Each structure stands twice: as structure tokens, then as C-alpha cells.
């Protein structure tokens, strides 16, 4: 299990989350932790509604790339779609398969345990009516991923992406620049699809996602940071020599983590400047 996977497994297990995305919030309303699960549900419903609008035929074949806990696959199967998934994590693959068996023991979905870039294309060439990425597109190499998409999609097949991208401000050195990783550059994405895909929809939903950052920043700055400071004081007193030595050895790493999580830059404002969150639907033109 790598550190990225661990970063998904820990919150999912601790909080029992059904979804691994940011959620969909009302723009301009103060986000509350108690509404987090509902916000995640609203986001899933938003994607499922967009899928239903894109593929009206309920026997359509769909692929969920980076399918997390399998929550969306379950919902789509209940609606009658045939859905496969891709997940690099063996831990989640097992959980998803169990979840799908619980819904229907005769279910034929295949959960591919690999990175999308390594998908066994020959098994599913020209088979999918729609391939979607719910907050997972940012993890896929576009150079390696687009040829795979091209090979798996049917003629006029659709791609749905709901994820954040880097804005033109990325790398400008302003406050909070690069404090939050992830996302392809939006202009590079548009260049990549030119000539091969028609844009059917491109909706900027940054304002519905960024409240999540406000909530997370509040938790980091006002709950986790003070706790870490107390633990730090305790360790300095208890194990002064070894603890100071370890802190010195890992000082660069600590500084980086401090900037990323405890500088206050993991905020709604920073997110809105450096990231832009879109729902994009493309149609295959080849
Ligand atoms: C933020 S989670 C989103 C999970 C789920 N789609 C959702 O909306 O709840 C990102 C997902 O992408 C998956 N992922 C990361 N890199 C990937 C890759 N190269 N190929 C396929 N999936 C990947 C992770 O395992 C994880 O399930």
C-alpha cells in the first residue's frame, strides 16, 4: 500500500465514508461538518444525474475509473447499467466486490485492480458507452491515459470528468501557491482533447466545491494544529535529545508538511485562485 492509498484508506475507515470526494455545497453558505456526508451525497447525485442525461439507454456499458468505495457503481447498477470499475488498491477492490455481491450475487461487473494507464485494453476494446472520472482524473497521466480511453470507448462514446484542474495562476509565487497539489493544467487538458473529442458540457462548479476547503482548513488550523503543538511540547520535555535530533533529521519534510497543512493556505480563497473544478462531458469524434 503506498502513501496515497493510505491517505484514502485512513479517513474512509475512521469516518466510515461512503465516498472519497469533496462534496457539493451551496455556494456562499457556511459549511458545517454535520453536513459533510450530505454534501458528498449531493455530489454523487449530481454525477449520476449527469450520467443519466448523457446515456439514456439503461443497458449502456459504463466504466468508473478510480471507483473509490464502489458507491457510484452500486447506484448505477441499481439503475440497470452495466458498470465496471478500475481501482489500483487491492484493499478497495475486495470491498467493492463484496458490496456488489451484496446487491446482486449474479452481478457481472469486473473490478480491474490496476492503474488506468495499465488497463488491459484488449479485453474491452470499443465497448464502453461512457467512461467517467469522479475526482480521479487528476491522478491519471494524460499522455498515457488518453490512448487507453480512445481504445475502450465506442464510436461517439462519452467521457465524463468531474475534478479540479490548475488555473493559469499556478506557479505565480503568490500566497499559498503550490500549497495544494493535484490537478492537470486546464489549458493543457483543452489542448489534449482538441480534434479528438467534442465538448458537450463544461460547467465550472468551483464555488460548490471550495466550501469544503473552508471546513478542512478550520479543522486543520483550529483542531489538529493545537493538538500537534501539545504533543510536540510533551515530546520535547520527555525525550529532549532523541526528539530534537529526529526533528532536525526530518526538518525539510516537516517544513513542507507545515506549509501544506498548517500555514492556513489550504483555504477556500487559495483553492479558488489556483484550482478550478469542472464537470466536463466529451464525445468521442474518432
Ligand atoms: C479522491 S478518490 C475518488 C474516489 C471516487 N471516484 C469518489 O468519487 O468517491 C480518487 C480515486 O482515484 C484512484 N486512483 C488514483 N490513481 C489512479 C490511477 N492511476 N488509475 C485509476 N485510479 C486511480 C484512487 O484509488 C481513488 O479511488
Write a concise keyword list for the protein shown above.
11 helices; 2 domains; Rossmann fold; 286 residues; 7 strands; binds S-adenosylmethionine; alpha/beta; single chain; seven-stranded mixed beta sheet
Describe it.
- By secondary structure, the protein is α/β, with parallel strands linked by helices.
- It folds into 2 domains: 3-208 and 274-284, Rossmann fold, CATH 3.40.50; 213-262, no CATH class.
- Helices cover 47% and strands 18% of the residues.
- It has 11 helices and 7 strands.
- It has a 7-stranded mixed beta sheet with strand order 3-2-1-4-5-7-6.
- The chain is globular and about 65 Å long.
- The two termini are 37 Å apart.
- Bound molecules: S-adenosylmethionine (SAM).
- S-adenosylmethionine binds next to loops.
Q: What secondary-structure arrangement, pairings included, does this model have?
A:
Layout: H1 3-15, H2 36-54, E1 61-65, H3 71-78, E2 82-86, H4 90-103, E3 111-112, E4 128-134, H5 142-152, E5 153-166, H6 186-193, E6 197-204, H7 206-209, H8 211-238, H9 240-249, H10 251-262, H11 268-274, E7 275-284
Parallel strand pairs: 1-2, 1-4, 2-3, 4-5
Antiparallel strand pairs: 5-7, 6-7
Bound molecules: S-adenosylmethionine.
S-adenosylmethionine is lined by residues 8, 19-21, 65-68, 86-89, 115-117, 134-136, 139-140.
Count of extended strands: 7
Low-confidence stretches: none
Under CATH, the topology of the largest domain can be stated as: Rossmann fold
CATH class of the largest domain: Alpha Beta
Average pLDDT metric: 89
List the secondary-structure elements in sequence, H or E: HHEHEHEEHEHEHHHHHE
Distinct helical segment count: 11
Structure classification: alpha/beta
Amino acid at each position: 500500500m503506498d502513501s496515497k492509498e493510505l491517505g484514502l484508506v485512513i479517513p474512509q475507515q475512521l469516518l466510515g465514508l461512503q465516498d472519497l470526494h469533496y462534496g457539493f455545497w451551496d455556494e456562499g453558505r457556511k459549511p458545517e461538518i454535520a453536513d459533510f456526508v450530505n454534501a458528498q451525497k449531493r455530489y454523487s447525485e449530481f454525477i449520476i444525474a449527469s450520467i443519466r442525461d448523457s446515456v439514456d439507454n439503461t443497458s449502456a456499458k459504463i466504466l468508473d475509473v478510480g471507483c473509490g468505495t464502489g458507491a457510484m457503481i452500486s447506484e448505477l447498477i441499481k439503475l440497470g447499467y452495466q458498470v465496471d470499475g478500475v481501482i489500483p488498491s487491492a484493499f478497495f477492490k475486495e470491498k467493492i466486490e463484496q458490496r456488489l455481491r451484496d446487491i446482486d450475487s449474479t452481478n457481472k461487473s469486473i473490478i480491474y485492480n490496476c492503474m488506468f494507464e495499465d488497463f488491459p485494453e484488449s479485453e474491452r476494446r470499443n465497448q464502453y458507452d461512457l467512461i467517467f472520472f469522479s475526482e480521479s482524473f487528476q491522478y491519471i497521466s494524460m499522455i498515457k491515459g488518453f490512448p487507453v480511453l480512445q481504445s475502450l470507448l465506442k464510436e461517439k462514446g462519452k467521457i465524463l470528468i468531474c475534478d479540479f484542474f490548475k488555473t493559469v495562476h499556478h506557479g505565480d509565487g503568490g500566497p499559498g501557491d503550490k500549497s495544494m497539489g493535484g490537478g492537470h493544467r486546464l489549458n493543457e487538458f483543452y489542448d489534449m482533447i482538441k480534434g479528438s473529442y467534442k465538448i458537450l458540457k463544461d460547467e465550472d462548479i468551483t464555488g460548490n466545491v471550495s466550501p469544503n476547503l473552508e471546513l478542512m482548513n478550520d479543522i486543520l488550523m483550529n483542531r489538529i494544529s493545537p493538538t500537534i503543538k501539545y504533543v510536540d511540547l510533551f515530546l520535547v520535555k520527555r525525550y529532549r535529545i532523541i526528539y530534537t535530533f529526529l526533528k532536525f533529521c526530518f526538518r525539510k519534510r516537516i517544513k513542507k508538511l507545515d506549509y501544506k497543512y498548517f500555514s492556513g493556505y489550504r483555504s477556500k480563497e487559495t483553492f479558488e485562485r489556483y484550482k478550478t473544478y469542472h464537470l466536463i462531458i466529451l464525445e468521442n469524434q474518432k
